[in-house]
Amino acid sequence: MSRFMTLPAADQSERVLDMQKPPLSLADKAYTVIEEMIVTLNLAPGTVFSEAELSRQIDIGRTPLREALQRLTAERLVVTMPRRGMMVTELNITEQLALLETRRVLDHLIATRAAKRATAKHRDELKTLAQALTSAAADKNTAEFMRLDRECDRVLEEASRNSFAAQACAPLHAHCRRFWYAYQNNGDLNQSAALHSALMTHVANDDPEGAGKASDTLMNYLEEFTRSALDLY
What we know:
This protein is mainly alpha-helical and 233 residues long. It has ten helices and three strands; from the N terminus they run ααβααββαααααα. The protein has a three-stranded antiparallel beta sheet. A hairpin with a 3-residue loop joins strand 2 (78-81) and strand 3. InterPro entries: GntR_C, TF_FadR/GntR_C, Tscrpt_reg_HTH_GntR, WH-like_DNA-bd_sf, WH_DNA-bd_sf.
């Protein structure tokens, strides 16, 4: 398989965040594993692969794998290549900026609604995540930071109690994590952690106005980060 790398072992973020989530179905497990491989460039942009190869690589059967790939195709992280298999989509800065324009609106909605509707459990989780994210950035542990960032998004989406916004936003977050990972040397992990932590703190403190402003500030940073990637071309 072209450009395959070994999937990194789970690190301490999984121990920090034992959120007692329900067990994943095989299709959900396949989706989670493959999405992480794509986000962390273990399946690099432009990589062509077959279902059979990927099934052996992650040790998951073809049926749940196919379901996962259908989701990833719908989210535009992979595309079908007739008679060749499937390919991980390329990174595109113009598309990334359009994505952020959409994400800005959805993230603001999720942040303000989460601040109003979060349960005590959600608020405790967000406080824990804010601390863990800051620690991961201080340790320069990008892999852990990415897992924690994904968990932050999940808790905020769940706390917002708006399944339509959450469903629309989840794939946008995956694309953003991949873009960040690809151009991480052009950014500041500590600054990103501080902005994420500020957002989670406002939500945890039942502050919708502050959460909305923090969300917009984070999006401003991500747009600047994306535009800075143009300098690398």
